[in-house]
UniProtKB/TrEMBL annotation:
Native species: Corallococcus coralloides (Myxococcus coralloides)
Domain HTH marR-type: 1-132
Keywords from the UniProt entry: DNA-binding, Transcription, Transcription regulation
Pfam families membership: MarR (PF01047)
Protein's name according to its UniProt entry: MarR family transcriptional regulator
Gene this chain is encoded by: yfiV
Matches recorded under PROSITE patterns: HTH_MARR_1, HTH_MARR_2
UniProt GO MF annotations: DNA binding; DNA-binding transcription factor activity
């Protein structure tokens, strides 16, 4: 399995579409993920972004600082609770999101195009099963609570 993973990793066409997109558009992976989440879900709080990116709020602040400096996002304080900061894409950020989305779809299309329809369906089933297992509590975690 390890040899297969290394072999796949060496082939540029099969690399992670987000990594390829990061290189093309000169963003870091967390910046790309933040743009994708904001593009898909609209306005999110800094805490929501941190959870979705799997980083601390301090880290997401640095990510948002650069995206804001470059004009991709704006931050807005809550009207009733000024501690809450929401982020949303600017028009430029929406254009960048569209580029990211197209680039990732193109990259995934190349990979999926290598498979026949039955193999694609099998891959989707396996990936859905993996995601389901990742989203459910593990037996060990469930017994500890």
């Amino acid at each position: 399995m390890q040899e297969l993973m290394f072999s796949l990793g060496r082939r540029r066409s099969l690399r992670d579409p987000i990594a390829s997109t990061c290189e093309q558009l000169q963003f870091t992976p967390p910046q790309v993920h933040a743009l994708l989440w904001l593009g898909l879900d609209g306005s999110l709080t800094m805490g929501e972004l941190a959870r979705r990116l799997g980083v601390t709020e301090k880290t997401v602040t640095g990510v948002m600082d650069r995206l804001e400096r470059e004009g991709h996002i704006v931050r807005e304080r809550g009207e009733t609770d000024r501690r809450i900061v929401r982020c949303r894409l600017t028009d430029e950020g929406k254009q960048t999101f569209a580029k990211l989305d197209r680039s990732m779809h193109r990259a995934m299309g190349v990979v999926m195009g290598m498979l026949d329809p039955d193999d694609r369906q099998a891959l989707f089933r396996v990936m859905e099963k993996v995601l389901s297992k990742l989203d459910s509590p593990t037996p060990d975690a469930a017994s500890e609570t």
